[in-house]
Amino acid sequence: MCGIVGYIGSKPAGDIIIDGLRRLEYRGYDSAGIAVLQDRAIELRRSVGKLSALVKALESNAVRGTVGIGHTRWATHGRPCEENAHPHTDCTGKIVVVHNGIIENYLELKKQLQQSGHVFKSETDTEVIAHLVEARFNGDLLQAVQGALAQVRGAYALGVIAADEPGRIIVARRDAPLIIGLGEGENFLASDIPALLPYTRRMVFLEEGDLAAISADKVVIYNSGGETVVRKEHSIAWDAVQAEKGGYKHFMLKEIFEQPQAIQDTFRGRLSPEDGAINLDGATLPAEAVRQLSKIYIVACGTSYHAGLVGKFLFENLARIPVEVDIASEFRYRSPVLDKNAVAIVISQSGETADTLAALRLSKQGKCPVIAVCNAIGSTVSREADATLYTRCGPEIGVASTKAFTGQLTALYLLAFDWAGKRGTLTGDTLLRLIRELWEVPGKVSEALKSSDTMRSLAKEFSQARDFLYLGRNINYPVALEGALKLKEISYIHAEGYPAGEMKHGPIALIDEDMPVMVVATAGKVYEKILGNIEEAQARGGTIIAVATEGDEAIKSKTSHHVFVPHVDELFSPIINVVPLQLFSYHMAVQRGCDVDQPRNLAKSVTVE
Ligand code: G6P
Question: Could you confirm whether 604 is annotated as catalytic?
Answer without folding.
Answer: yes
